[in-house]
Structure formats: structure tokens, C-alpha cells
Amino acid sequence: MKALNTRNRPSPAHQFAAGEVHLDLGLAFGRGRGGPGGWWILPDPALSLPDSPHVVPDVAGWRRDRMPTMPPGAIDVVPDWVCEVLSPTTRRDDVLVKMPKYAKSGVLHAWLVDVETRVVTAHRLQSGLWLAIGSYSAETEARIEPFDAVPLNVAQWRLPAGSAESEGDAP
To answer: What predicted TM-score, i.e. pTM, was given to this entire model?
Structure first.
């Protein structure tokens, strides 16, 4: 009998940050609105990665030249980029379980959006290990690999002022 694996749902700040990342990148890189296009950007994609069939990033992206069409079911193509939103309920799993699995699978870029510290940390895979390539917080025109063709307003990836969690739980 398999054990039931449950986890708490992410906080509104977590969900908001993931939605903002997806929206900004999806418009510029997925649809080519204000950006070059050429990517598939998906929230919570169903992945079937080697040795990690149940790992699901908050947001992930594939260059369309590597994955020209969207598969009808679980995606078995390793993403070019993943984004995990860190919050109290997800931080440990995201950092200690998911990031090593992404590296082992060959994901080339990973972002960690920390809702408590309000910092986005970008990583590039180098020789099988994650290399931190930059940290961003209040920048309104951050150029972050692999999406550095378009400036991103990472300061917007937080709950609006006046929200219950806006003071201590948004990026």
C-alpha cells in the first residue's frame, strides 16, 4: 500500500508570486508580447522527468526549438528553466529535494523566489552544480538569465500594499 503524500497549500503570497512570474514571462516569452517569444511557460506543469516523476515546479519553461509542440500529457522533456517560490510550507522541499533533482535531470536555469526575504536568486547549472548568478529584490528592470532579453520588474512580484500578508510574506 502506498503512503498518502499530502502537503499544505501554498500561502496567498506564494500563489501571487508564482502567478506574477508566470504572467510576466508568459506574455513576453510565451506569447511574444513585449518580448521575443519562443518559449512555453507553464504553471505547475505535469512533468515526467527521469528519476523524478513526481517533481512539480511552481513555474517552468521550455525553449520551443527544443519542444516545438505542447505534449498532450505529462511532459518528459527536461525544462530549460524552473522557478520555485519559497515559503514556510515549501522551502525545505524546494531547496533540499527539488533543486538537486533538477540539477540531476539537467535543468539549465533555476530561480528561487523567496516570499519571506523578498529576494529572487537566479542559478545556472554548471558542471552538475548550481551556480548562483544573481540576486534581485527591488529592481524594476532586472535582466535575469535565461530571460535577460527583457527587463523584469521583480519588485511587482509581491502582494499589493494593504494585503494581509504584504508586509512579511511577499517577494
So the answer is: 0.88
- State how far the Cα of 16 lies from the Cα of 36, in Å rounded to an integer: 25
Q: Please name the fold of domain 12-156.
A: tt1808, chain A (3.90.1570)
**Which sign does the torsion angle of CA 43, 35, 170, 124 carry?**
positive
Report the C-alpha gap between 26 and 5 in whole angstroms: 30
Instruction: Express each pLDDT in 80-130 by its tens digit.
Output: 999 999 988 889 999 999 999 999 999 999 999 998 888 999 999 999 999
Tell me the C-alpha distance between 87 and 11, whole Å.
8
Selection from 70, 65, 59, 60 nearest residue 38 by Cα: 65
Domain ranges for the chain: 12-156
Measured CA to CA, the distance from residue 17 to residue 23 in angstroms comes to: 10
Cα 33-81-108 angle, rounded to 5 deg: 135
Q: Which residues contact 38 (CB under 8 A, 6 or more apart)?
A: 29, 32, 63, 64, 65
Q: Which residues of 106-126 are buried (b: 16+ CB within 10 A; e: fewer)?
A: ebbbbbbbbbeebbbbbbebe
